[in-house]
Amino acid sequence: MTITDKKKVQHSLKPSAHPYLNGAWTPNFTEYTATEMTVIGEIPHDIDGVYLRNTENPVHEAIGHYHPFDGDGMLHAMSFKDGKAEYRNRFIRTKGFNAEQEAGRALWTGIANDPTLSERPGWGAQGHVKDSSSTDVVVHAGKVLSTFWQCGEGYQLDPHTLAPLGTVGWAPAEGISAHPKVDERSGEMLFFNYSKQPPYQHYGVVDRNNQLVHYTPVPLPGPRLPHDMAFSENYSILVDLPLYWDPELLEQGRHHARYYADQPSRFGILPRYGTADDVQWFEASATYVLHWMNAYEEGDEIVLDGYFQDNPDPEPLPGLPKTVGKMMANLDIHSFQSKLHRWRFNLKTGEVQEQRLDERALEFGTFNQQYAGRKSRYLYSVWGEPNWFLFSGIVKHDLETGESFSLPFGEQRFGSEAPFAPRVNAKDEDDGYLVSFITDMKEDRSECVLIDAKDIEAGPVCRIILPHRICSGTHATWADGASLRKEKNS
Ligand SMILES: [Fe+2]
């Protein structure tokens, strides 16, 4: 392995027994650039692009209780070209990160604490936390965009060097939620945000040149906690789900999410460039959904796949202090029981149909993004380690035959969201690789794996050993190399 750069960031985190500051969630503070890494198998020549993953690495001792979603964002990137790979990891130099580096300590408290503990005005729908840009990552208009689930400013980075390129110029005052959606065919990016102030939600479109070209309120009945949106070829789908901050406690300045099982799930569907007047609302059975899969149009219907939670407000995990047990349960897909589910919305009749696609607890879906907004045949999900926010394996669903295929990562091996990377000159929808970082606790190291999407049960075709064991995290994406080069030259 050749390490061409190695830098340690100043930190003040003390050792603790916190479950999300140890084991596979032990934070990283060192930034590496590495080439010529040890490879088990062979790096294929027909993969070209960058795999990016966002992770949470708290640099300073928390003010109050630490929640893993409070941690400072760090991107890990593996670039592939001509059978070679290059690895980098960099903290996202957010305004909050820089201010805390200067202070040498935390200045903002996290989501689970009294807002008055923050020393400076914060960001996000809660208003008092640091925008750590640590939740999601996409690539749009040739740049990496990291986002924060509570709504933040959105940070851009160079996709190859991870050099910081500042916040997005077009970010509205209400911010950008995690899960902006890139339509690879049109080059547009669709996004939303949510807040405690009326109209409580906005939706917008950014064009392929990174200009905000559409921004409109999509009013909600009150403060809500949407996490993701979906789109079809012509429509965008936003939600009003019955899990939100208890309004009475919110009046006292407390952010306590409560599930209202007697209220419906509401889906707002509007044309891509529609406004509040164009939104058609549909009601379906009560649930909470963290992540959607794909959506597409079929006749008069919009078909939407996602992970329906059977138990959106799980009991705390036993044997732990109640607040810790509740945090652990809220991070455990076996507790909230997220199941692959299909909704069909008839735009003519207003009718909704629902169908369960798989009874196993799954989440963090991916699919070939060239099929985003159109009917796709293959979906990929991960399953979790019981009691933990850790991914233990991948399931591939073939929606045409109803078959599914599984690949466990192995004992004490935890993966990441595994986006689909199309093979160069791919012929079919599943002609490509699933890419993931694995943190292997037995070997005390991490690796990047490539899995042939046509035969996931065969296991990785290639494993690249990283220069360090990396902290687990949240979302990941794949960016096509040829498209990035085209953007650079345009
Ligand atoms: Fe998410």
From TrEMBL:
Q: Can you quote the record's cofactor note?
A: Binds 1 Fe(2+) ion per subunit.
UniProt KW keywords: Dioxygenase, Iron, Metal-binding, Oxidoreductase
* One Pfam match: RPE65
Residue positions binding Fe cation: 179, 227, 291, 475
Q: Which cofactor does it need?
A: Fe(2+)
Q: What GO terms describe the biological role, i.e. biological process, of this protein?
A: carotene catabolic process
Highest taxon of the lineage: Bacteria
List all membrane-crossing ranges.
Answer: none
InterPro entries assigned: Carotenoid_Oase (IPR004294)
Write out the GO MF terms: carotenoid dioxygenase activity; metal ion binding
Q: Which family does it belong to?
A: Belongs to the carotenoid oxygenase family.
Q: What is this protein called?
A: Carotenoid cleavage dioxygenase
